[in-house]
Specification:
Length: 116
Amino acid sequence: MRYLSIVRAPETSTPPSPEEMAAMGALIEKFSKSGHLLATDGCLPSRLGFRVRKAAGKVTVTDGPFTETKEIIGGFALLRADSKDQMIELLKEFLEVHGDGECEVRQLWEEPALAS
């Protein structure tokens, strides 16, 4: 099963330390080698982002920063896990390295395998 993990955390103006980057790099390498990590990336600050919304037929665009939000999307990971329980264990390990924040997880649609 494939899962999308969306990381939400308080936005900071300082980049991660070299030690934090090394720890995250090691975890990314571990998850990649085990076949659990399919893709990942971090997001630039919300001041560089924007939101596009449609309501009642009208489209609005709002430029960042998104100060009304306590926690913003800081990045994502596309992961493969055999079960929800396994996914939870992977994210516990991730949050141990990442620090405070939360991961919203959504299972992704997969086409059923066709019989040959």
